[in-house]
Design a protein that fits this description.
The structure is a homodimer. Chain A is α/β, with parallel strands linked by helices. Chain A contains 17 helices and 16 strands.
Chain lengths: 455, 455
């Protein structure tokens, strides 16, 4: 999804919440957080509204999404005007150009966002699954039924499209949503939120189902403290934002996104296939989490493969950070500085999100597995080989959300997996792993019907 | 499960980890934690060992559990001797009697624990589920396969049986386990851990699959900080322990257990059935989390019902905390102080875990729902009524792990639900909700097989 894109600049500007801000001092006395009361009140109202939404039918929820789409269309002028103010302020503040590009909305982009709303309305209702049920020997009838998570908080950065994408996915699955976007997009997000609330009201639902929080760090901290009022937080953005949320939040978090993904070219690889996969995994969209960051090549094919893929990568604008052996092979193939430099330990750990690739020669499958176990982030890992046994061992052994044989890591995506939509890619193991679709925005409860049973 | 039992005394003695201990000072500089290095090293070795376990078959894992059962049998003398030392130390320290009772093992109790190991071996393998699979239009074959969570940390209190129960459930599902029990049970837990490790070695598996951590708070804090080394923490014990773990841990936590459960007697209830359910929900085991803590009664039947259930509860040793209306009805039925006292706000929030029951008269279903939404802990909630529409509205509206119609809340339990075993009862919404069986100790990964696909 588009918002997976981020880069160093954006991360530098939209700093993660300050660990000290408003959470407490050494003695555990909370510092003043000027948004605490506001955020808690919004969360309470969102929960009230969610109880109402939970009782709606699939049709009523889809009609509400259509009403939101229409309200966004009706508010196009106001939204674009607000966005122009955000962009002007960002330009005046000298923010980096790629960030301003992400911030900017125009008629075409907004139409795309609105089209996305209708696409979500058209998806199957994740709450409409047949409950699993069984009867106990004592006659108790137990059903496990799908229910919404409740109130979901989203903490994200400067892309206004996320405001709408995330909100409609939450609503479709019966949840209320509290949105804490970046400061730079404050006016755009307020206008988008207002339009969505107007759509909800037009559909006869409470406008509090969507809440746009104050755009600063204190609001994020208040959200992380709102245990019991907010059911789950989903941070979407750079590694710093995600780590800060995971470490500080008292509300359960679904971690998304950091990807130090590897492509491992095994000695029995089809090298032409490996070349295409490596180029695709690195270059097709280097700024996203499922892009490859490190290439591992078996020693026996390293000279031949690197002589082929090295110049092709450099041709595509990629700079390489190579281990001594790989460096020698690349230099022998005519790839020299500055396109290739010696790798340091930091390169094996780096999520470049850029046209940069670390390259390492390994002694075989075991060494590749050990390297991935040590440096991988449990996101997406690929092996290229014609040896079925090696492939199966790789697929079975590697501990990651998605493991690939003879395919690019770039496929780890809700759309590519056929889920129709995604709210992010989970790199944790609890609740959701890999691309999260609508089902992951729900939970279950047990409904037990008796005739007076006691224990 | 037995370890759900806990009381004020135990909680007072086994205090929750100190929020300041070893986690950091105002400037974020970590204080010295003398167990940090030990715990991290144990976690690394557990992970190595788990990679080995993950590749075993169902039969190999069951054989390992049988070997553990035999090793525990062979070590009975040593285990009971260690336990006698723990009990003697606890008695010398003047620990409360119920706590010493929970701490004490004897031949019969240990045989029960060993029987439990074999019962877990006999359960179906949660990893042996048929993977869900599909083929994408581009030919990619995607499978969602069940895999272990990895390394699981258990933080618990003074019951040595938990050491074995929790470990074998984790192992059965392919996980390594790090056990952080209470100080009082240190010698017992060390002996049990040694026997389990010996069993694993006898079965040809790494003994590091089970690690018994140092029995103090610093080890718990080190475990909570071991993000990336430990995949999930499951705290089992009192509310203080659970809250501290949830709020401090950087490792994802599955929250278990706090239960402020309500029985709501609707105006259309079969009052004889309601009486049995209330007595059962309160009295059959008041110290567990699925016991009722508050009785809500509809105004139109309150006088009649309380005149019947009030004396029966008092007869069973229950003390009542009543709202003014309920108080008047109870007094009219001859139930007076000290058996009944006026309720305060604190009573609606209390998880008594004792022969105490809060009683409130409500104006109908809406008021009952509002009370439960405000004071419930999303554990187990029951309505007693012959009115099907009222029952369905209650079941649909109440946000809890288990909702009951005409049955006791006491059924929220892995065994009663038919899961064969349980590691706890989750009151959170992510990953697991309600009784957690073996399936909840696993996660999934996506295995993608291609023929050179790029995006």
């Amino acid at each position: 999804m588009a918002d997976q894109v981020r880069n160093e600049q954006e991360r530098a500007v939209e700093r993660a919440p300050d660990p000290q801000a408003g959470t407490g001092q050494a003695e555990g006395v909370p510092a003043v957080n000027r948004h605490e009361a506001v955020v808690r009140d919004m969360a309470r109202r969102a929960r009230e509204a969610q109880r109402r939404l939970e009782l709606t039918t699939t049709e009523e929820r889809n009609a509400a999404l259509e009403a939101i789409a229409r309200a966004l269309e009706d508010s196009t002028g106001a939204i674009l005007a607000a966005n122009r103010e955000d962009v002007a302020a960002a330009e005046a503040a000298g923010l980096p150009r790629p960030m301003i590009a992400r911030l900017r909305l125009d008629e075409g982009k907004l139409a795309g966002v609105i089209k996305g709303v209708r696409a979500v309305a058209a998806l199957p209702d994740p709450l409409a699954t047949e409950p699993e049920g069984w009867v106990r020997p004592n006659g108790l009838r137990i059903e496990r039924v799908r229910v919404p998570l409740g109130v979901i908080g989203i903490i994200y950065e400067s892309r206004p499209g996320v405001t709408v994408d995330a909100a409609v996915l939450c609503l479709k699955a019966g949840n209320a949503v509290l949105l804490k976007g970046g400061k730079e997009a404050a006016r755009s997000n307020a206008a988008l939120g207002e339009a969505m609330s107007a759509g909800l009201s037009a559909a006869g639902l409470p406008h509090d189902l969507v809440g746009v929080l104050p755009p600063d760090r204190e609001a994020a901290v208040a959200l992380m403290n709102a245990r019991g009022l907010v059911d789950v937080l989903i941070p979407r953005g750079g590694a710093g934002l995600i780590r800060a949320t995971v470490e500080q939040s008292k509300v359960p978090v679904i971690e998304t996104g950091t990807g130090v993904c590897h492509v491992y070219v095994h000695e029995a690889a089809d090298l032409a296939m490996a070349r295409e996969i490596v180029l695709n995994a690195k270059c097709s969209n280097p700024a996203v989490c499922n892009a490859a960051e490190t290439l591992l090549v078996d020693r026996s094919v390293a000279a031949r493969f690197l002589a082929e893929v090295g110049p092709a990568l450099v041709e595509a604008g990629v700079r390489l950070r190579a281990c001594p052996e790989a460096l020698a092979h690349l230099q022998a193939a005519g790839v020299g500085a500055p396109a290739v430099e010696p790798a340091t330990e930091a390169d094996w750990e780096a999520e470049y999100l850029d046209l940069l690739l670390a390259v390492k020669v390994v002694g075989g499958l075991d060494e590749a597995l050990a390297h991935i176990a040590r440096y991988g982030t449990m996101h997406s890992e690929a092996i290229v080989t014609q040896d079925a046994a090696a492939a199966e061992r790789f697929l079975r052994t590697v501990d990651a959300a998605a493991v690939y044989h003879n395919a690019s890591t770039r496929f780890t995506d809700g759309g590519e997996f056929g889920f129709g939509a995604e709210i992010g890619i989970s790199t944790q193991k609890l609740h959701a792993r890999g691309p999260m679709g609508l089902a992951e925005l729900t939970t279950h409860k047990y409904v037990v019907r008796g005739t007076g049973q006691v224990r």
